[in-house]
Write a structure and sequence with these properties.
- With about 130 residues, the chain is mostly beta strands.
- The chain has one helix at about 1-20, and strands at about 30-40, 50-55, 70-75, 80-90, 90-95, 105-110, 120, 125.
Length: about 130
C-alpha cells in the first residue's frame, strides 16, 4: 500500500511540474533602450518620460527586496534616447509620455537570455495631441 501511495505521489508531482510555467532567472539582467520621436516630423522628443513596469500576473514572481519601487522612469536625452540598464529578466510593460503628445500604449516585452534578447530595443513614435 505504501508503494502504491508513493507511486501516485510521484505521478502527481510529475504532472504538476509539467503544467507550471518556468520562473524567470531573477539573478540575470539585461538592458531596454530606444528612441522616442515625433510621428510626423521624425524629430527626437526631448524630456519624454518612458515608464518601465513589472508584468507579474497575480504577482506570481515576488519582487526582490533589492529592487526599487515600480515603475521605473527614464527621461529622453537631446537625441530622444532612453535606457534602462541592469533590469532583471522577465516580462515588462513599457510606455512613453510627453507633454503635447498622445501617450503611447503599453508595450509588453520579454527580457531574457534566450535568443540574445538580453538587450531589447524599443522605439516610440508619438502623435501630437490636439
Amino acid at each position: 500500500m505504501k508503494k502504491l501511495m508513493y507511486f501516485f505521489a510521484i505521478a502527481i508531482m510529475a504532472v504538476l511540474a509539467q503544467s507550471c510555467e518556468p520562473v524567470p532567472n531573477l539573478d540575470q539582467k539585461g538592458t531596454i533602450s530606444g528612441v522616442v520621436t515625433d510621428a510626423t516630423t521624425g524629430e527626437p522628443i526631448v524630456g519624454c518620460e518612458v515608464y518601465l513596469s513589472r508584468y507579474t500576473p497575480a504577482e506570481r514572481v515576488a519582487p526582490r527586496a533589492a529592487e526599487p519601487v515600480w515603475p521605473h522612469k527614464a527621461i529622453t536625452d537631446s537625441l530622444g534616447k532612453y535606457e534602462f540598464t541592469h533590469v532583471y529578466f522577465g516580462k515588462y510593460n513599457v510606455a512613453a509620455v510627453a507633454d503635447g503628445y498622445v501617450p503611447s500604449d503599453n508595450v509588453e516585452i520579454l527580457l531574457t537570455d534566450d535568443n540574445d534578447n538580453d538587450w531589447v530595443k524599443l522605439n516610440f513614435q508619438l502623435e501630437k495631441s490636439e
